[in-house]
Amino acid sequence: MTKDISHNYYKELIDLQDVEGVETQIRSLLEVPIESISDLEEWLKDEKELMIKITEAMTGHQVDFYRNTEDALIKSTYLHDQQVIQPLLMKYEAKLNEKCCESSYLNQLDENRYGLMRRVRESKVKLFREENIPLIVREQELCTKYSEIMGGLTVEWEGEEKPFPFIESQLDHLDRAVREKAYHLMMSAYRQIKPDMDAIMDELVQLRHQIALNAGFENYRDYMFVAKNREYSIQDCYDFHENVEKHIIPAWNRLADVFKSKLGVDTYRPWDNTAKFMKNPPYSEVSTLMDGVSEMLGKTDPYFADRFDYMREHGLLDLGDRKGKSPGGFCTPLPVSGDTFVFANFSPSFFSLIALIHEMGHAVNAYLEFSEQGPIEEYQSRMEVAELYSHGMELLLLDKLDRFYPEEEECKSAQREGLRRAFTMLFGPLSGDLFQHWMYTNPKHTAKERDEKFFEISKRYYLNPVDTSGLEDAIGMSWAGTLHYFQVPFYIIEYSISMLGALQILENYRNNPEQAVESFKKGARADYNQSIAAIYKETGVSFDFSEPAVKRMGEFLEKVIQDIH
Which residues form the Peptidase M3A/M3B catalytic domain (predicted)? Predict the structure, then answer.
């Protein structure tokens, strides 16, 4: 029996510092004879139990590091996982996949239960190359360096050193001069770290290109589509880019005209393209934020609030901003504990309120899935599904923003901002996806060309209605603030795909609130071995990002905005 090394939010049932012991446990799986279907199913069960122990320990170490990037011991533990345990796992994962795929009983397993697992394993066997292990280790080292740089980034504000998220929050300020000042300070901060960001990204692009070449692909983009087992094609993505540009951007421009009129300005500048109509941030203390979100969740469904309150009580939320904390926000499952942890580094702002609600969508999904299906395995986790419930939660709580904005007009402003976010989540991630398509199919590009391409794509989408004169260089380098480009390449279009589904959840909710919430919960606990389309169907929506679907949801979004207006 392995000793449980207690932690306040995760369980460490395996000592990852004992590399030999870890390797022995993994190697023992390779020595098990598989002589029947039942042997194979038992072997898969044993493999899962070991891997979720390793996963929870590594996840806990990663969260520890993100919470405090400046602690030497925490960093050392995290780097040990990345530099020693991760290569070991990659080496043995390939051997385990081969053992499974070579079994004559694999194709006799129940297709509904094991079909997705089989397809994922077969693609991993196809992609694995021993020579890629050190490249992937180096990739992780560069991602860690990025987190350290961004975690330590500060800006001087009125004579005080402030964490970077604080300056970002000032973009929501009612005073246009304050927003403009914050914007220029952010760009100045990016300019200081730009040489480091360029060096990291230059190396990442080359590493990833070589990983793809080693695996027999022409470029990293094509490699990642196979690695992610996507249920749609590269061409589908390009069509989606065009459909949104054709049907969503014109509506976005009309909404920008409304905002420009309300602001009373002649030109719409980047610092106007923010949540800037509320008089004050929605909260000043994290405890106030948590009180309000709990109440909003409870008014939507008691189970939602129950999970949030449980997480709050058990130290599974870290929401405040502080120096040395990694940027961004995420929800991560803890498969042994059966819990989830929400990490966020946000200062008081409308965005941070919505971001917490977003992450609670992930958390509710994880808890429902765990209670119904047990721990989710890596191969079952598809972001097009996960993001459906996070975006869906945002929109289900849209009519409860009066908890933070009790004045009628200010509440309407907050709701409009929530819908503006829905717009931006349709085309913002798409522009990021297109940017990455370009980067990895043009791996010899220069840093200057990268900045120019980012600006060009931004103007096609998010900044289409914005006057960017004199800011081309600043906007061009602002890609450095998006951690997805560094740490999770090609994980971004999923936000746009799932937002189309989430808008359908909102449409259902406006027609029948109780039924929409029940369908949300049904889909969130669905069997993840199904196709994405089947899971969406259980949620009461369609997995469809064709031109008619994009056009219809764009029209619906405009209608909702008009209703609030």
Answer: 174-515
